[in-house]
Amino acid sequence: MGYEDITIVALFILVYAAISGRADRTMINGALVFTSFGFIVGNSGLGLLDLNVTSEGLRVLAELTLALVLFTDAANADLGVLRKTIAVPRRLLTIGLPITILFGTLVGALIFPGLDLIEVALLATILAPTDAALGKAVVSNQSVPVGIRQGLNVESGLNDGICVPILFVFLALATGEAAPQSSGILALKLVSEEIGIGLVVGIGLTFPISQFLRVAAERGWMNESWSQLPVTALAVCCFSAAQWFGGSGFIAAFSGGLLFGWLAGKAKVGVLLTAEGTGDILTLITWVVFGATIVGMGMGLINWQIVCYALLSLTVIRILPVWLCLIGTGPRIAEKLFIGWFGPRGLASIVFAVIVLNKNLPGGATIAATVACTIVLSVITHGLSANPLAMRLARSEESQGDH
């Protein structure tokens, strides 16, 4: 990235920051603006932004962005409400997520006869997790019932971490690193390691560090200008340490954020501001890079099969499993449809797609193009529908309450 690229991105950040309040009240979400800007000024557009970002560089950027967003979203969660509404995210993660991957694999096998079944399963797994950053417009919208907001927040915070070991099992099968007969044992081992290590690292780091920071603040050890930085550093530390030890950094970031929010109490509002702002900037840069590089490259590979699967992934493949897994729970029909629709795809899918792309699988290009198409459609459709559908759900809740 040259100085001219940095100048263009910095100017865009300044402009968007100035109108961010008004933008949040419109139908157009940040991710849509950022991606569109990247595409327009990138190599496929005006050519003003010349980004030679490697797949590894994009993966690291997306991972750190997602880790910080997960940490701050979890820290802002209301654990009292979450305890009362835990049935929804529990069902979405333990029942809905596996059904989504299975359903996505079956549909993909019909649409992509040229792909190996394991490659189709990889595609379904890549597109199964929802995006905490892209779904923020709904999770932070006070018009949406708090139980649904907390449920979607927890789902998006944990489903990417749960999908990591599943992804690696399919990758091992696709590359021949594991035999089909050992897939069950490998899956159990990876799931236990990823989730277990992620939880241990996230909680194990956050508790002592939070206590240390509290003591430092009480005794006036910290300079005021530095007091906002430890939260960002803690989020990155939870993620990177878990990855280092072989666990899921996303699970570590989310679990660490939940614990940090509980320990900080009301004081979390002030100390999280800088971390949230940093997450917003990284999110903006990630989407600009995505729009300038991946979207442009994927345009030439788009065909009817890719568009068809992308549309189904955002609708039937997501909504039907959500509907099935929430049978017998509290949400009404309108709420179930709302939860099913708001399963945006974004940063986690970008990270997973880059991991698969680096393995040079025969169907890697098709997988990457399908993921890019799905994410772009998600950015557009979920971005445009977030505020209108949230308001409509709020009116539905009010009319229900009147009766």
TrEMBL record:
Q: Where in the cell is it found?
A: Cell membrane
Could you list this entry's UniProt keywords, alphabetically sorted: Antiport, Ion transport, Membrane, Transmembrane, Transmembrane helix, Transport
Q: Which domain of life is it from?
A: Bacteria
Q: Which residues form the signal peptide?
A: none
The segment(s) forming the Cation/H+ exchanger transmembrane domain are 18-391
Record's bilayer topology term:
Multi-pass membrane protein
Q: Where are the transmembrane segments?
A: 6-23, 30-49, 61-80, 92-112, 195-213, 233-260, 281-298, 304-326, 338-357, 363-385
In its UniProt entry, what is this protein called?
A: Cation:proton antiporter
Q: Which organism is it from?
A: Microbulbifer spongiae
Q: What taxonomic lineage is listed for the species of origin?
A: Bacteria, Pseudomonadati, Pseudomonadota, Gammaproteobacteria, Cellvibrionales
